[in-house]
Amino acid sequence: MTLTLLGDSDHSFALPDFGIDEVLDGAAPKVVTFVADKPGTYTFLCTIPCGPGHMHMKGTFLIS
């Protein structure tokens, strides 16, 4: 799976179950590539405290 990410300030894209924690500096898109080889539901999140909404910056991938 390949994701292209762009932030508005310093953030990160972390997908702990796949060993990913990439810093996004907000200045340029960042491509994150990983092999989605384990079926399941996985949480991704921002690991850089970035403001009042930081605790809500998360989501899930469903890999089947």
Short description:
The protein is mainly β and 64 residues long. The protein has strands at residues 2-5, 11-15, 20-24, 30-33, 40-45, 58-63. The chain has a two-stranded antiparallel ribbon. It has a two-stranded antiparallel sheet with strand order 2-3. A two-stranded antiparallel ribbon has the order 5-6.
Blueprint of the fold:
Blueprint: E1 2-5, E2 11-15, E3 20-24, E4 30-33, E5 40-45, E6 58-63
Antiparallel strand pairs: 1-4, 2-3, 5-6
Task: Please describe the structure with a list of short key phrases separated by commas or semicolons.
mainly beta; 0% helix; globular
Unreliable stretches, pLDDT < 50, 5 or more residues? none
N-to-C SSE series? EEEEEE
Strand order of the largest sheet: 1-4
Distance between the termini: 13 Å
% residues in beta strands: over 45%
The whole-number mean of residue pLDDT values reads: 83
State the share of residues found in helices, binned by percent: under 10%
The tally of beta strands, per DSSP, is 6
Oligomer: single chain
Characterize the overall form: globular
Structural class comes to mainly beta
Specify the number of helices. 0
Radius of gyration: 12 Å
Largest beta sheet, briefly?
2 strands, antiparallel
Give an overview in words.
By secondary structure, the chain is an all-beta fold. The protein has strands at 2-5, 11-15, 20-24, 30-33, 40-45, 58-63. The strands form three sheets. Strands 1-4 form a two-stranded antiparallel sheet. A two-stranded antiparallel ribbon has the order 2-3. Strands 5-6 form a two-stranded antiparallel ribbon. A hairpin with a 4-residue loop joins strand 2 and strand 3 (20-24). The protein is globular and about 30 Å long.
